Amino acid sequence: MNSVNYQFELYGENSLLITDIRMHVKQESLPVDERKKFKVRLSSMKNDHILNYLGSLDHVFTYLKNIDSDTSTNVLTIQQFAEQNISSRSCLHENIFRQQPFSTIYLKYIVDLYELLEEITFDQVLGSYIPNEYCEKSFLESDRIKIINEFIKSTYAKQTISNVLKQPERWIALLKRIIVRILLNINVSSDVPLQLYLERADLWTGDVTENDIQSFSISNDILLRHTFIILNGLKAQQTKSNSDSNEENIEKSIQNVHEQTKQAINWNEATENDAGSIRVIKDDKKSKQKTKKLRV
């Protein structure tokens, strides 16, 4: 399997590529419908192509960070930028140049595209090749449960955390990025506090502010090596929540059916009684009219 060679440095915010790009080229999130389409297309690619595409965007990033900030840059597509600024394009994946819709993506969406590609890289490629030392079997069950629960309590379940960070999905996506960019880098120590990476703005999506990041803090006993077991713990919690929610909706539906059935029975019974009363009244009127005619 091809490896993903990440070029990001561990510390020093000014030296991080994504941070530099956000400073030079104003970034936006892909439109929701477009993001869904890209996800389907990327998920259908072969593993080698996914890794090559990720590496190609890495290469484009090294050029993007050096351009002068200019509003006209935002309207360039990735293909146009590469043609104008990268002389040697042999290491760039063909999607950047030839295949739509990827070749026509604007630079203002490149970071969001990159983050989407990282998540797909984890889900379809790297998630199955996590070293044993980071997997569940390397930890006692009691330790795993403690780490996962403490992480949840200190992050999205924390009452005072920023509203933006209260969705478990954000944390799941973040942990995937950390695994792809950081944990699987052979030059990185896995025995450092995970908090050091949770504080890095480049690992968060562009809509998360510094104030948001400062609204939480996790114990220094939770280390980078724990990232994968925390990710699996969060995914299990989410699956359980979705299952509980589905069961609750099913139970409500059953209750609604029972209630509607009961209401229908009551209504029918009431209708029958009312109809009977009406018939009696009509009969009385007719009998009175007949009596009146006889007297005349």
Quick structural gist:
Helix content is 57%, strand content 0%. It is mainly α and 296 residues long. The protein starts with 16 loop residues before the first helix and ends with a helix.
Topology record:
Layout: H1 17-24, H2 32-43, H3 47-64, H4 78-85, H5 110-124, H6 141-154, H7 168-183, H8 195-198, H9 210-213, H10 227-295
Please describe what this structure looks like:
- With 296 residues, the chain is mainly alpha-helical.
- It has a domain at 1-129.
- The protein has helices at residues 17-24, 32-43, 47-64, 78-85, 110-124, 141-154, 168-183, 195-198, 210-213, 227-295.
- The longest helix has 69 residues, at 227-295.
- The chain starts with 16 loop residues before the first helix and ends with a helix.
